[in-house]
Design brief:
- The protein has a seven-stranded mixed beta sheet, with helices on both faces.
- Helices cover 28% and strands 31% of the residues.
- The chain is an alpha/beta fold.
- The termini are far apart.
- The protein has helices spanning 13-16, 76-90, 129-133, 135-145, 159-162, 206-213, 230-237, 250-262, 277-287, 308-325, 343-357; strands at 3-7, 21-23, 27-31, 39-43, 49-55, 61-67, 99-104, 113-118, 121-126, 150-155, 168-173, 180-184, 187-191, 220-224, 242-247, 270-274, 291-296, 326-336, 361-368, 386-392.
- α6 (206-213) runs parallel beside α7.
- S-adenosyl-L-homocysteine is lined by residues 202, 205, 225-228, 230-231, 246-249, 252, 276-278, 297, 299.
Length: 393
């Protein structure tokens, strides 16, 4: 028997707008004894059927909706249909790359489920109680759609703790190679799917790397928060004279050096520097060192709304420093991957940084996440990656 949750009066509004989350405070009554991850039906206070979702008793986000169609059952075929539909929307990207995000969680109608494709390896993140519950169905669907692919689970993400789930990494099918080689826009990269950040590589920056590289010809580039140096490879391929990769991770920088060789580029055109960006930008300023193009792609600074002010300070600090280090007519490509950072606020922070740096700055282009990270119209939270290409006048 499917358990039935009835909402408090007035709390049906977000569901009627097809937003997929229900918080504990919105629930008036629970009929039945649903366990973690079980499928439940959600009714409005007047008994009207609203949606069917996964119950998560340990989380403030108590239900995530799988379907708004009353006759849709959450079974094997459901997962196959949803994943197939998401994969179809990415098909055209595979002409230019063999790596993409196949399933972008809520934005593809599969809350808590992220699936990335890297050549012949699929990497899943199952981040909610519902996703955890249906692991076998998800694997079944993936094996049906991708019979030759290996499947790795990278559920080693803190957010699982909020759902009362352990952090884990496990092979779900086949043999997972230590490194998976992918090809993106004619360039080659090695992805450490078992140990790399997130699922191993930042697919969301694919288009932005190309756009930024358009400004790299004959320029000296500082690539801050470089990770494995994908941006550096694009910039060198685009004609940059030299790129400095700056990161605090030795393993990421080692991989960045391998990427230079793998793409037939000259090692002397790329320096790997292990240093803290905040400190290193200050050191460069003290030395009077300048660059033509600076990339700032920091990790998420905003973990929750209370951190927003502090995060703004962090973004302002690095943007101000970077703008001071740019030669006249230099280019700054600056990003925020914090979903909780509103786009307008990010633009304001960069504008304020320009003012304080005493530089006159033009915004040339607004950037966002690649299209395999779509934003569902009913779920604006799906929009998280924002960027600006700026020119110092
Ligand atoms: N631009 C990269 C992704 C950046 S991820 C790409 O497109 O592939 C963020 C990176 O910032 C990580 O590699 C992390 O090691 C690094 N990092 C985090 N804090 C840092 C700091 N204070 N100084 C330098 N690097 C930092």
């Amino acid at each position: 028997m499917t358990a039935i949750l009835t909402l408090e009066a007035g709390r049906e509004k977000s569901l009627l707008r097809r937003h997929p989350w229900i918080f504990a405070s919105a629930i008036r009554h629970i009929g039945g004894k649903p366990r973690k991850g079980d499928t439940v039906d959600v009714l409005a206070s007047d008994g009207r059927w609203l949606g069917r979702g996964a119950y998560s008793p340990d989380s403030a986000m108590r239900v995530r909706i799988w379907t708004f169609e009353q006759n849709e059952v959450v079974d094997n075929a459901f997962f196959l249909r949803r994943i197939e539909q998401a994969a179809r929307a990415r098909q055209h990207l595979l002409e230019h790359t063999n790596a993409c995000r196949l399933v972008a969680a809520e934005c593809d109608g599969l809350p808590g489920i992220t699936i990335d494709l890297y050549a012949k390896v699929l990497v899943c993140q199952l981040l909610s109680a519902g996703a955890e519950k249906h692991r076998d169905k998800i694997v079944w669907a993936l094996r049906k759609l991708y019979p030759e692919h290996a499947i790795l689970e990278r559920s080693d993400v803190q957010i699982r703790e909020k759902e009362g789930l352990p952090l884990l990494t496990q092979t779900l099918h086949g043999e997972i190679p230590e490194l998976v080689e992918i090809e993106e826009n004619g360039l080659r990269f090695l992805v450490d799917v078992k140990n790399g950040h997130k699922t191993g590589y930042y697919l969301d920056q694919r288009n932005n790397r190309q756009l930024v590289a358009n400004y790299a010809r004959d320029r000296e580039v500082l690539n801050c928060f470089s990770y494995t140096g994908a941006m550096a490879v694009y910039c060198l391929q685009g004609g940059a004279t030299h790129v400095t990769n700056l990161d605090v991770s030795d393993s990421a920088l080692e991989m960045a050096a391998r990427h230079i060789a793998l793409n037939g580029l000259l090692q002397e055109r790329c320096t790997q520097l292990n240093a803290d960006v905040f400190a290193q930008l200050r050191a460069y300023r003290a030395e009077g060192r300048q660059f033509d193009l600076i990339v700032l792609d920091p990790p998420k600074f905003v973990e929750n709304k209370r951190h927003l002010t502090q995060a703004c300070r962090g973004y302002k600090d690095i943007n101000l420093l970077a703008l001071q280090l740019l030669k006249p007519e230099g280019i700054l490509a600056t990003f925020s991957c914090s979903g909780l950072m509103p786009e307008e606020l990010f633009h304001k922070v960069v504008a304020d940084a320009a003012l304080d740096a005493g530089r006159s700055v033009q915004f040339l282009r607004k950037l966002s996440q690649a299209e395999d990270h779509p934003v569902l119209s009913t779920y604006p939270e799906g929009y998280y990656l924002k960027g600006l290409i700026c020119r110092v006048v």
